[in-house]
Amino acid sequence: MEKPRMPMKIRYEYEQNQDLRLNYAHGVWGGLNAHGEVEMNFYTESEKLPPFSECAILPDGNLGEEVAPFDENVQIIARRIHSKVLLNYHAARSVLEWLEEKVELLEQQEAFSGIIDDGYGMAQ
Questions:
Q1: What are the pLDDT digits (tens) for 98-118?
Q2: Distance CA 76, CA 46 (A)
Q3: Whole-angstrom Cα distance, residue 6 to residue 63?
Q4: What are the Cα distances from residue 106, in Å, to 4, 28, 33, 93?
Q5: Three-class SS of residue 64?
Q6: Is the dihedral of CA 11, 18, 38, 116 positive or negative?
Q7: 35-65 burial: b if 16+ Cβ within 10 Å, else e
Q8: 44 forms bridges with which residues in the sheet?
Q9: pTM for the whole thing?
């Protein structure tokens, strides 16, 4: 019996789900889970909104200054996790190599332009 021939190449065709959304991330939080996978929780962050705010009604019927209960000594930042990604070892290794390659290209472009952005719109 003749051994089946292996194809000369594999083609990957990409399709996007109709409900695909773009997610921006300020960071990622995670680690190894109980199944030995890399768990990444991507988040955005912003100042936490107060639980409420109030305006006093002035004697003339107008609204006074709006005030909210804040502790002047503590700034609270809310991190909203919008995506969770689980990767096995092989996928994590592949993503790491891909990301290192893209960061290297980005650094080459940034070095050429002479501007490096710290992620907050501030050139260094």
A1: 999 999 999 988 777 766 665
A2: 9
A3: 78
A4: 44, 20, 31, 20
A5: strand
A6: positive
A7: eebbbbbbbeeeeeeeeeeeeeeeeeeeeee
A8: 80
A9: 0.67
